[in-house]
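Ticket #4471: structure export looks truncated?
Reporter: QA, pipeline team
Priority: medium

Steps to reproduce: submit the single chain below to the structure queue and open the exported record.
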Amino acid sequence: MPATQHHSLLTDFDIQLFRSGKHFRMYEKLGSHILEVNGQWGVYFAVWAPSARVVSVVGNFNGWDKKANSLFPRWDGSGIWEGFITGIGRGELYKYHILAPDGRSLSKGDPYALFWEIPPNTASIVWDLQYEWKDQDWMKHRKDGAGLDKPYSVYEVHLGSWKKSKDGLHSLSYREMASELVSYVKEMGFTHIEFLPVMEHPYFPSWGYQITGYFAPTSRFGTPEDFMYLMDAFHQAGIGVILDWVPSHFPADAHGLADFDGTHLYDHADPRKGFHPDWKSCIFNYGRHEVRSFLISNALFWLDRFHVDGLRVDAVASMLYLDYSRKQGEWIPNQYGGNENLEAISFLKEFNEMVYREYPDAITIAEESTAWRGVSRPTFDGGLGFGQKWMMGWMHDTLNYFKNDPIHRQYHHNEITFSLVYAYSENFMLPLSHDEVVHGKGSLMQRMPGDEWQRFANLRTLFGYMFTHPGTQLLFMGGEFGQTTEWSIEKGVEWWLLQFDFHKGMQQWVKTLNNFYKHTPALFEKQFNPDGFQWIDHGDYQNSTLSYLRMGKEQTMLVICNFTPVVRKSYKIGTPESGNWKEVLNSDESQYGGSGAIQNGTKASVEAPWHSRDQHIEVDLPPLAVVVFEWQGKPKVKASKAKSTTTASTKVKAAVPKKAAESKAGSKTSRTKKA
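Actual output as written to the record:
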């Protein structure tokens, strides 16, 4: 039977940093590590369990005998137990046997394990990450595609249900997805893919949000190296990868972090702070230094070892508020009597500071559903430091608006315009995510009113409005071709629908939108800058239309949305510049499933005032459609007198509604680069 020797990878400085909450590469020291000591190969184990009476390693190598390989407690009071077991190596199954202070015997997986058994089995696996990356070109130039003035069109995917194997019962492996998923995302034109949590989780229907193995990609689809292969394939295809990260809570499974050493080690003992009423799970103790080291080490681990390009942080609102989903008397105020979780706020700021310090070309994105100020503002300016924030208000208002029959939309016009009142208060990403197509909400297509043609036309219009609205984009799998039922992790995406023309047309429309967005600087160069947007007419509620400008450094686009099935002939639109305006996008084209009846071509402006401008164009608006025109400049004979785009944007500011103008004025003072 293999013997245990007293050996340590931890220095006094490591311990000092860990105990002060400042060790952000703790995965290099805790967990299991294959190494050679005094000419003998074996595995070094180290685990934080300060209240344990005894800690031992049990596994298939010692017959799961809790007395065979005890670990040694460190003398420095850090609560870390460690030891070197000779003669074992990669692939060994193991757990920590912990004798709790009250005499209970606990069997725990390794919080820092790199690999786990396939659920429902729960043992950790000794592993080291051995992979030869081929994405050097991507990593070298990643900074060129990062930043607030770059396009982000994100395809959100649940790995286990994007596509099932031929029998419909099994998910694709990481390596199968490296072939099929990568090529699909590239063909569709998305700039990034975002995975629902890939970290190991015991319950498949949790979608990955109940994590037990924070440092391990789930073994359901292959090894950690197989997941690296998938990451590598995306990067070689020029696609960034964002991971959903869950520092907000963890499950109470017996082999996980809960009750780890017989005490509330990672969470709070008081359920008013440590128990999440919505998810029946445990809330991390953000004020405990060692927990902060664990979480920030985990965030950097995915960036360090798996070349991840960004982290989308789940359920930030639940972290920020002590009374989140709690009634009076069910929560404890902070030291000032407020409902803000000061420890969580401090943690989120430090997390963002560390990510951007180490990886300034990466991105962090917050799912934050309240009006908390400064989520995507730098910490030095009082913000939380995220790069972007999901625009949940836009999502709710937009879906509420579109579910109305077009004849009634005139009475809900404020829902489709309100987002521009606060659009520049944060760096917003517009999300049509997995949360909007589950729990009886139905698919996006199911929410659209009218007959079949109108439902598809409505959804095309929604997508067109979304991609021309200020901000970045996120769309959940299946939405890109108009899946007709809500998402099921058991059935997967309904790819069979693509045999029908309407669905193929929708897919082609999203592909067109992605490529149009990526190659149209007016849509992204100033996507978080109020100078990049101007209303032309936000008040035509009777016709349920919107018209606005999107402007880049040298390009101006005119967007017109018709939210009714009524064709509007000779519709006048005031323009900031005279000259030619060319139609460059039309959601009603037949290739997308539209009528194809109206194509405007190029329209020359008429020197007559309209919408408070000196000139206008007359266009024909197709039914339930979005059309986009690009300014071509003045006629050649007048080219020497053409005004600049800057002059144009200055001229139209008078037409901005008062509230929006006030919002923009406020946004300018707080607009800064990401932390």
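Status: closed, not a bug. The export was complete when the record was re-opened. Leaving a note from the reviewer for reference: Residues 179 and 659 are 49 Å apart (CA to CA).
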